Amino acid sequence: MRNLNELRPEIDAIDQEMQALFERRMAIAGEVAAYKKANGLPVLDEGREEALLEKLRDRASDPEMGEAIVRLYEALLAVSRDYQTRRIDHD
Q1: Are the beta carbons of 58 and 66 closer than 8 angstroms?
Q2: Which helix (H) or strand (E) element contains residue 68?
Q3: Are 30 and 87 within 8 A, CB to CB?
């Protein structure tokens, strides 16, 4: 079993990658917000979100991980909706 001094740098590196991907995702969410505003579409697309969560759950390595991924993405989608709403309201 590896010790914490070996594991934590790996987690730090993964967090750095996840942050970069999150920032990239949010930049695209900003573009989505502009499209939705220009086309009079609502920020929330429940069908899209439900389909995404189901797909993520189904692709998970096991049911427990699937539920954890769904919880993570529910939070991510809430942050994304908030960001899109702020972009629409301020542009």
Answers
A1: yes
A2: helix 63-90
A3: yes
Amino acid at 51: A
Residue listed under structure tokens 């001094």 = 5
Confidence of residue 91 (pLDDT cuts 50, 70, 90): low
Spatial separation of the C-alpha atoms in residues 62 and 1, rounded to whole Å = 23
Is 80 buried (19+), middle (13-18) or exposed (0-12) by CB count in 10 A?
A: buried
Both structure tokens of 38: 């220009």
Confidence check: pLDDT of 90 > 90: no
- How would you class 70 by CB atoms within 10 Å of its CB: exposed for 0-12, middle for 13-18, buried for 19 or more? middle
How many Å apart are CA 61 and CA 59, to the nearest integer?
7
